Backbone:
């Protein structure tokens, strides 16, 4: 058995990391397509406030963070949907107020600064059973949600008005999407830390979008890139004795670069063979076909 | 030809009558006298509708008109005239400040029977994000009939989808990523998406903006065919007068309020000048292609 599997903390890290690697990009696909990446970022700061409160009150920090992110997500969505405040203004208010509260709590209390640092930069190597259970439950909830509401999610990602006229309950879908974004952020926070949560949610998805043609492929590719990044990142971090969160995020960026390269190569080949590539311009033949088509 | 002419005269008479009676009914040029609007059900109706954004100047002011089953209604107006607001009110995306808007006799904000309605927007939010969907997948979205937990496992290639792609003239593009299409092709894909569920009423918002002249003509032919051959009621928003003259049976000119409504051949340069706020001198082609 390789050395890496002889440590319980490494096995826990691999299990927790893998669950988050499925959860974050699977849900991230809808976050990216709806251009909500900034919400993920805001909610990660809200999660930080939750963690601080958890430490001070001596409760389970990840759970407090989950409550904080999901309720804030619902609040942000309500403000946005009712047009009370421009979307990014609402985000700024939530981001800075929660960060300020976190800073005040940390400065007033001494003794947990080291742990807190871990939440900022990721603590996947010190993940405990309680965290694993919570992440596991969130994973099941989010996967069931994505599968059951796949139609609604893809419709509202394409266009909110079109979705409404197709009969999709857009307001309810948006609220659920926001709340589960909070849950996804909280789960991912344990692996890559508050400051890099957005990376795990967004970057594997960008890599997948470069290569995928259909929605299902994009979903599966996002998850595949997420899993590869976490596995490679954890192994490299273990043997090179580096910060796991940072290595994982760098690996996602390498994946994105690879996907771009493969995508470009494919476009180049397609162009040479006269096939219109994904995301590129239209061939003359297509134009003629469309024009000559008798409606 | 003579028969058509007689029809034309009939229609004009009826339209004049409507105007004299002060009715808000839009007269549509049906194929025969029995098809008069009063005999056909109303599918969309604005009743003294008012709307203003954020409580400012009204964007829509006391608008009343009806669209009947089988109509090809063109809503004309300059930019900022409230055309798109009207459309959003009709689709229940906005709630009127005063008055009401009805779809199939039901308040549009409470309307839920969306399978009867198709919609082709001017722009789509999701495009430009490398949206991962083939043309076929986008058209399939039009078949949405409520929550389906197994949707993710369903196979492609349903006959309805292929038929709709055929009607829209883009069957050969069905496996292509939606983002790789030209603007005109995307609009056809959106038409296919809108008609795949065989709606009774089709809303289009400036569907040809950004499409070249040839594409525009073909697009209007397609919409006319949907109206005449497939029996769909059409509610088209445009700032392009040519579009109205080609296939529309009724038209309403909007500049916050209704400036003109009636058959397109009753539309004069004076109406248009009032609409656009400067003298308009146009050669109008009516249904018989006579220059007036």
Residues:
């Amino acid at each position: 058995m390789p050395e890496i599997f002889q440590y319980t903390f490494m096995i826990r890290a691999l299990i927790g990391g893998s669950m988050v690697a499925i959860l974050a990009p699977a849900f991230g696909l809808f976050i990216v397509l709806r251009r909500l990446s900034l919400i993920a970022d805001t909610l990660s700061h809200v999660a930080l406030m939750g963690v601080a409160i958890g430490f001070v009150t001596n409760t389970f920090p990840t759970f407090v963070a989950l409550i904080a992110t999901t309720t804030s997500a619902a609040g942000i969505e309500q403000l946005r949907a009712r047009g009370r405040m421009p979307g990014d203004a609402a985000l700024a208010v939530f981001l800075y107020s929660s960060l300020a509260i976190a800073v005040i709590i940390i400065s007033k209390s001494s003794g947990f600064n080291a742990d807190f640092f871990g939440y900022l930069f990721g603590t996947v190597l010190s993940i405990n059973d309680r965290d694993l259970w919570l992440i596991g439950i969130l994973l099941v909830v989010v996967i069931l949600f994505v599968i059951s509401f796949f139609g609604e999610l893809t419709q509202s990602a394409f266009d909110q008005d079109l979705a409404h006229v197709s009969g999709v309950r857009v307001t309810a879908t948006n609220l659920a999407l926001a709340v589960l974004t909070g849950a996804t952020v909280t789960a991912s926070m344990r692996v890559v830390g508050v400051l890099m949560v957005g990376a795990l949610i967004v970057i594997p998805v960008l890599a997948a979008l470069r290569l995928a043609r259909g929605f299902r492929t994009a979903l599966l590719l996002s998850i595949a890139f997420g899993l590869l990044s976490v596995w490679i990142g954890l192994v490299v971090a273990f043997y090179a004795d580096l910060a796991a969160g940072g290595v994982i995020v760098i690996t996602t960026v390498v994946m994105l670069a690879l996907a771009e390269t493969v995508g470009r190569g494919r476009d180049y080949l397609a162009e040479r063979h006269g096939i219109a590539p994904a995301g590129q311009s239209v061939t003359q033949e297509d134009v003629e076909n469309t024009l000559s088509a008798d409606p | 030809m003579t028969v058509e002419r007689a029809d034309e005269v009939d229609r004009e008479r009826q339209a004049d009558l409507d105007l004299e009676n002060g009715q808000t009914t839009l007269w549509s040029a049906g194929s025969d006298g029995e098809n008069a609007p009063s005999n056909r059900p109303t599918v969309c109706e604005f009743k003294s509708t008012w709307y203003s954004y954020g409580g400012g100047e009204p964007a829509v002011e006391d608008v009343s008109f009806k669209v009947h089953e089988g109509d090809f209604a063109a809503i004309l107006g300059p930019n900022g005239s409230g055309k798109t607001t009207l459309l959003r009110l009709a689709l229940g995306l906005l709630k009127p400040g005063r008055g009401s808007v009805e779809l199939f006799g039901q308040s549009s904000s409470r309307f839920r029977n969306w399978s009867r309605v198709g919609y082709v927007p001017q722009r789509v939010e999701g495009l430009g994000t490398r949206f991962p969907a083939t043309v076929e997948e986008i058209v399939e979205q039009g078949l949405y009939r409520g929550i389906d937990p197994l949707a993710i496992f369903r196979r492609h290639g349903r006959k309805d989808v292929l038929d709709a792609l055929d009607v829209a003239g883009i069957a050969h593009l069905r496996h292509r990523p939606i983002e790789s299409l030209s603007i005109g092709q995307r609009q056809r894909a959106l038409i296919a998406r809108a008609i795949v569920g065989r709606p009774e009423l089709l809303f289009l918002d400036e569907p040809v903006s950004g499409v070249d002249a040839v594409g525009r003509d073909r697009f209007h032919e397609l919409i006319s065919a949907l109206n005449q051959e497939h029996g769909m009621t059409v509610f088209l928003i445009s700032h392009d007068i040519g579009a109205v003259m080609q296939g529309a049976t009724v038209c309403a000119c909007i500049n916050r309020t209704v400036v003109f409504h009636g058959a397109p051949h009753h539309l004069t340069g004076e109406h248009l000048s009032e609409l656009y706020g400067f003298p308009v001198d146009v050669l109008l082609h009516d249904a018989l292609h006579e220059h007036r």
